[in-house]
# Entry
Amino acid sequence: MNTTTAAEQLAIEGTENSTSEPVNMIARVNAIAVKMAFPFVAKNDIRFYLNGINIRPLEDGTAMIVACDGHRYVVVRDPHGYVEKEIVVHLSKDSIKHTSNAKHTLDVMSNGSAMISGDVAQPLFIQPGNSLIEGAFPRIEKVANFTGYKEGVNGAVNPHYLLDALTIGKNFGKSIRFFTGDADSQLTFVLGGIGDLECFGGIMKMRESFDTLPTWFPKPGEITSLDDI
# Structure
């Protein structure tokens, strides 16, 4: 009577031998940078790569954290961040509860696991499943352009997007400045006073115009100044 070998038995049971690759850390960035970027992440967008946070290594060895939903974007540079290769990471809203401390970090492993770690490297939150999103994240450098920009706000801007920018400035920075070109160019904001982190972002303009008073508004009378009222 013939008997199966150990290798054949493994094949029958569907448990073929495989060499498991070692798991190593591929990114570690400041948790505050993640919290700053999170409001700008797309929600359930068919462009699946926008539903995560892009983490890129820069030429100077630092890390750049980017989020974009197609209407606005934010860029944060972490001078102490580590990124082995460019990745896009999906994080749930629950993870953001643990990102208020500058000593906490987002750690991403080569097998797709991601966690928010405390100041002594203990995991505070572990993202369920594989957090890595496949796909090419858009090059923000093709959009971000400050040439010819002047300080101030010009053109129609979504107030909710403007509020998110102001909220970042309120919660993390000591100042926020706005720059814009013409009425159609993006509104750019720059944050100051956020420790070692650097942050700027852009908001696309809305195609609306209010250059003159509406036709239904009464014609002006003899009063030309509020002092005359």
